[in-house]
Amino acid sequence: MHYHPLLRAFPCSFAIVLCSYSLQAEEPKALRTVTVAECLRRVTEQSLDLKSGIYKTEAAQWRARQAARPINPRLETEIENVAGSGDVERFDAAETTVTVSQEIELGGKRRHRTAVAESETAASRAEQEMRLGTLLFETRRAALAAQSAQEKVRLAEEALALVREAESVAVAREKAGKTTVLETERARAETAKAEIEVEARKAEQRDAVRELALFWGETEPTFDAVDGPFDAADGTLPPLDDLLVRASSNPDLLAAEAQTRTYEARIGAERAARVPNLELIAGVRRFEEGGDFGFVAGVGIELPFHTRNLDGVRAAEADAEAARLAATAARLRNEGVVRQLYARLDTLRARTARLKGTVLPATERTLALVRDAHRQGKAGYLDVIEARRTRVEARLHLIETVTEYQGVSLELGRLANTLSDNL
Fold first, then answer.
1. Are 332 and 324 in contact (CB under 8 A)?
2. What is the C-alpha separation between 170 and 188, in angstroms, rounded?
3. What dihedral do alpha carbons 144, 149, 150, 155 form, nearest 10°?
């Protein structure tokens, strides 16, 4: 029986397609990565908290413009001698008065009111800068947590590879009759534990990525990992005195000082409120009985019998003093924390160097020697487990130390106002 050439080629083509699909299925899914700089850009452009702060500042600007406007005049119409009895029973004896009154603010009320509104606008801008700095700091710290979780996943996967290698050696030795099934089963149990550890670390990484994405409003992250170096910074720390000088321009402190100036401006407004305003009145009166007209004029002023706003002035002075003390306390506390973090950072840097230079190389050499001895039958599986556990603990300690170092460095940069240097 003879088949058409296309029919003879069909099985081969079908097999090629199946092989291509199987190869694609075996390829690991590429990770979607994002850099720290991209995270900062996204949070700056998409954060709802920052957009809300922009509108708050805009509202303060409009209030400042409104505060600078004078009081509107008042138009009043009055009809007298109407619907009475006798000669004023109807409208024949009515008197109609139309007046315009204008309240004149004395004591510089409008000037002080405008100063308060402008200081509130400046305080709103300072709070927006503080909000931006805090958000960028929190974003970088969340990115650091994601990178730390990624390093722990890599460590768990490396540990799993070592355990699987040890399991294959145990199986080979059992087949060769050099060991019992007990060692093989122990190796399988360790492999299962390592696989569980890998899954747990991957879950922690996914949680860290989700938490990072929430900073710019993504409930479903569009990335799987954060790309970038994860290590302690090399070189010496900047001088402490330089950091203390930079710390004086910390956005939190500037916001507190702006709030203090707002309270101080309110003292002037409360003092101006002690001066009564003057009201000027002018108008025209028409007499229905004779059809005549007459002009009306008057002056009014508040009589400060019950209050002269002394309590308001004292309250404003107390608020300003409280704000000044709070700003001073915040500045002292900021300096103290900068000194504390600086010392902590120096300690962590020394610990990191010791882990890299001494502890970790020693555990690597020990594990290599034990693995060779285990292949040669000179060391038991328990020795391999112990050497591997020691190495994993050392690597994990290094990851946690580097994470703490970077976290303290971020906190120090936020307080010393140096985070923007690395953007």
1. no
2. 9
3. 130
Q: Which amino acid is at 11?
A: P
Q: What is the pLDDT of residues 311-367, one digit of tens each?
A: 999 999 999 999 999 999 999 999 999 999 999 998 999 999 999 999 999 999 998
Question: Which tokens in the block code for residue 8?
Answer: 């003879």
Closest CA to 186 of 173, 201, 198: 173
CA distance 97 to 298: 13
Q: Give which of 296, 303, 300 is closest to 278, Cα–Cα.
A: 300
Give 381-394 pLDDT, tens digit per residue: 778 888 888 999 99
Listed as own residue / partner, the contacts of 115-119 with beta carbons closer than 8 Å and 24 or more positions apart are: 115/265, 115/268, 115/269, 116/67, 116/262, 116/265, 116/266, 116/268, 116/269, 117/60, 117/63, 117/64, 117/66, 117/67, 117/68, 118/64, 118/265, 119/258, 119/261, 119/262, 119/264, 119/265
Find, among 8, 129, 113, the residue nearest to 63 by Cα: 113
207-219 in b/e burial notation, b at 16+ Cβ within 10 A?
Answer: ebbeebbebbeee
Tokens 């050497």 locate to 387
What pTM was computed for the model? 0.80
